[in-house]
Specification:
155 residues, 2 helices
Amino acid sequence: MALNKAAKIALFAPQTSKVFLTLLTIDHADLGAPLRFVNDNVDVTSNGDLYSAFPFEVILPPERADELTVGRLRIDNIDRGITSTLRSISTAPSAAIQVVLSSDPDTVQLGPLNFTWRIADYDVSTVEGDLRFEELLGEPFPGDRVTPNTFPGVF
């Protein structure tokens, strides 16, 4: 996804008044609705979804051609509702990350980057865990065997 002109100008300028916001969506089949957060002091509406102002930190995985890398997500545990919600699910939730400009929150500058969030630890101050891309290297390729039973028109 290419950055628009306003975002490029803001990135390459020595100083700018543009503010980049990170949007985080945590979702799971067991949740009634996704949890949506923005790393800002005020709530933001982007593409019709309300993102609640909430402190969190994302460390994206580095790009390497020879291995699957792991990122990190740390959310401040100032609201005990997050911990109780995450305790209620049985498998790892998904985490989608998007970057927008505060002046134009409906235009996604980066993302969505979709991860699985493997929660490693939580305490009274933080909930944190690894961000992993979907494991595609272990999938069989090709996905089907070409036999007379599965593809009769080939034979």
